[in-house]
Amino acid sequence: MDPPKFSAVQEVRIGKESPLWRDERIISIALQTVSAVVIIGVLVWVVTNIVNAAEQRGLGLGFNFMDSAAGFSISESVIPFSPSDSFARALLVGVLNTLRVSLVGIVFATILGFIVGIAQLSTNWLVSRIALAFVELHRNIPLLVLLFLWYRGIFTRLPSVRASIQWPGPVFINQRGLYLTWPIFTDTGWIFITLALVGIVAAALAWILLRRIREVSGRTTNFVGVSLGIFVLGLVLGWVFSGGRPFDTSIPELQGFNFQGGIHLTPEFAALLIGLTTYTAAFIAEVVRGGIQAIQRGQLEAAAALGLRESHILNLVVIPQAMRIIIPPLISQYLNLVKNSSLAVFLGFPELFSIGKTVINQAGRAIPVFILIMAVYLIISLVTSLLLNIYNRRVQFVER
Q: 14-52 in b/e burial notation, b at 16+ Cβ within 10 A?
């Protein structure tokens, strides 16, 4: 057998290895090492200068002040708070207020955004034009202007308490905010909640298991009906074992100079929630519209050829495929809503950034407080991204 033949270039490479300064792997490692050293050096220099400047001006960087009494009151709080409580509890109130307006805003913005996004593609000219006007109006107005429009232009112009506007529910609207009818749990309400949660968990497990069996064996398992039945069974058992009265209805009633009972939404919270919801919903609507229009026309024609109605085509064919496109940009909109909640400082709503500014004025510790604020927003953003990315990976196509 003839020996293998090599080209001239291969013979040179075999006979003589490349020097280290021409080896691409060595060059790459060296450049990465130098870059890391430079970045770490710059960070150390910046941190050292900040620490030295803070010490020269008498600004401590420690967090020992967090146990001191706050000395100020908070107008709206999820948990009880008094001026004698610590700065740490005050910041906790800010975190909870931020989470409350963010979570409720995300839910409402998602629902409204999907409705408006689908409405833009409606064959009804009036519906599509109204949806388009909603999107263009909110996308081209700065959020801060929109918040002031809702707060100064609407809520502060509402009638007094005694001349409140009444809607069905009943719901009362006046200068002091919204007063809504709200359910309150009785002494046996915990039984209803426990069995309802058990029903939700059991329904979710049945959904996953029966759907997996259908995918593996091809048999009809009716996982939707079974899961829904288990959930309803949990609610019925909770209602029965709680004595048929797991909760009462608290209705707001005018007593003296204000309403008592129900749930009260302050003008600041209501304006912030509505502004964040409508503003974010406009961007979500565009994401939804783009995701639906990205579905191939052949998919719709094939579904129509099978005799599916338009509602079934939308729910069973279009939306499941569009979600693979919608989820990534939807994550960004959720993160924007959380960060935009800091604009509540201009409305007087005591969220994290607003309370942080008050803590800085009281304690004189700007750097530690801003570090905490940034850390909280970072954690909220990372957790939100993690949860939605987990869902995004589950709905993506798996290439073989």
A: eeeeeeeeeeeeeeeeeeeeeeeeeeeeeeeeeeeeeee
Quote the distance between the C-alpha of residue 184 and its chain's center. Answer: 26
Torsion of CA 258, 263, 264, 269, to 10 degrees: 180
Spell out the residues 6+ positions from residue 233 whose beta carbon is closer than 8 angstroms to its own. 199
Q: Which two tokens stand for residue 52?
A: 């030295």
A 10 A CB-CB count for 214 gives 14
Residue 194 near residue 280, CB atoms below 8 Å: no
Nearest residue to 266 (alpha-carbon basis) of 336, 143, 166, 351: 351
Host H or E run for residue 178: strand 177-180
CB 62 within 8 A of CB 368: yes
Amino acid sitting at position 201: V
Query: Across the 400 residues of the chain, what is the mean pLDDT of every consecutive 10-residue run?
Result: 52 55 78 90 85 69 83 88 91 94 95 94 91 94 93 89 86 88 85 91 89 78 85 90 85 85 89 95 94 84 81 77 87 93 91 92 85 91 88 66
Cβ atoms of 372 and 65 closer than 8 Å: no
Distance CA 355, CA 34 (A): 42
> What pTM was estimated for this model as a whole?
0.78
**CA pair distance 310, 212, nearest whole angstrom:** 28
| Helix count and strand count (H, E) for the chain | 13, 8
